[in-house]
Amino acid sequence: MKKYNLNINGTNYLVHIKSIEDKVAEVEVNGTPYSVVINEEIKKTSKTPILVRKEVQTKQGDKRVAENLTPVSHTSKPSAKTIKAPLPGSIIRINVNASDHFKEGDILLVMESMKMENNILAERSGTILKVNVQNGQAVLQDEVLFEIE
C-alpha cells in the first residue's frame, strides 16, 4: 500500500504497510514482517474552519421591498396609457401606425442601443392612438414612444 521512511530516536526505518483488515495491519519494517494490532483510529482534525451563518433577520422596511419584487400576475397587467423607451438609443424600424391594433407580445418597434438591436414588445393588447417617434430619431430612457388605448 504505502511506504514510509521514518527516523525514530536517530535510527532510520523503512516501513512498508502491506494491508489493513479490521484492526490488524500487516507491515514490513526494514524487511522484517510484523502483524500490528491497531487499538484506535486517530481522527484528523480539519484545518478548514466551518462557516456558520446566522439567520437573516428582516426589518420592517424589508417587507415592502419584498412586495415590490414579486412578479406581476397576468390579471393585473400594466394600465399605462403610454409605452416608454426602456433605454436610450435610436429608432431603427416602427412596425405599427396610429389606429393599428396590437396583441400582447407583438414587436412594436426596433431600436438600436449600444450597437445592439432591441425589440420593444407590447406588454398587453390594445390600439395605437399616436406614434411619438420616427425612424432614425434618438430617444432617451423613459421617453414616450407610443400613446395607447
Task: Characterise the protein shown here.
This protein has about 150 residues and is mainly beta. Helices cover about 5% and strands about 45% of the residues. It has one helix spanning about 60-70, and strands at about 1-10, 10-20, 25-30, 30-35, 80-85, 90-95, 100, 105-115, 115-120, 125-130, 140, 145-149. It starts with a strand and ends with a strand.
CATH fourth-tier homologous superfamily of one domain: RNA polymerase II/Efflux pump adaptor protein, barrel-sandwich hybrid domain
The general outline is rod-shaped
> Could you please say which CATH topology of one domain applies here?
OB fold (Dihydrolipoamide Acetyltransferase, E2P)
The low-pLDDT segments are: none
CATH class of one domain: Mainly Beta
Structure summarized in a few sentences:
Among the domains are: 36 residues, no CATH class; 67 residues, Beta Barrel (OB fold (Dihydrolipoamide Acetyltransferase, E2P)). The protein is 7% helix and 45% strand. The longest helix has 10 residues.
Topology overview:
Blueprint: E1 2-8, E2 11-21, E3 24-29, E4 32-37, H1 60-69, E5 82-84, E6 89-94, E7 101-102, E8 107-113, E9 116-121, E10 126-131, E11 138-139, E12 144-148
Antiparallel strand pairs: 1-2, 2-3, 3-4, 5-12, 6-8, 6-11, 7-10, 8-9, 10-12
